[in-house]
Amino acid sequence: MGSHPINLAVRFLLELAALGAMGTWGFAHGTGMTRYICGIGIPLIAVAFWVTFAVPNDPSRKGTAPVPVAGIWRLMLELSFFGVAVWMLSSLAKPALALSFGAAVVIHYATSRDRIVWLLRAA
Q1: Which residues is 67 bridged to in the sheet?
Q2: d(CA 49, CA 79)
Q3: Which of 10, 85, 105, 116 stands 20 to 30 A from 4 (CA)?
Q4: Could you give the number of structural domains in the chain?
Q5: 22 is in which domain, residue-wise?
């Protein structure tokens, strides 16, 4: 189910929402020029980690892995990525949005059990 096209589309939308939350947080917490540096830079750094560190032959990523990592490390990266987005939404005084987004991420991973098992077995 984790590599089902609908689940992959949901995951992509969650990724975009997380990046949006990171950018919004950066713009809200910066001042002057740092506002733009944080608002654009934080999501760019997150994307760089997201696309760089991957498990070889991950079917959800077309099998490419610029920097190969074990599945547990990829899972930790993903959970950190989404966890930071939830924290940023919460710190923007948007608890309902943070809770809703966090719940969507939990539901997504609950329906991706086969992918999680695969990640935990991938060396």
Answers
A1: 53
A2: 13
A3: 85
A4: 1
A5: 5-121
CA-based nearest residue to 23, from 46, 5, 55: 46
Long-range contacts at 91-99 (CB < 8 A, ≥ 24 apart): 91/25, 92/21, 92/24, 92/25, 92/28
Q: Where are the beta strands (DSSP E) in the chain?
A: 53-54, 67-68
Element (H, E) at 105: helix 95-110
The DSSP result for 52-79, as a single string, is: HEE-TT-GGGTT--SEE--HHHHHHHHH
d(C-alpha 43, C-alpha 20), whole Å: 8
Residue for token pair 């990046």: 19
Q: What is the pTM of this model?
A: 0.91
Task: Give the separation between CA 16 and CA 122, rounded to whole angstroms.
Answer: 26
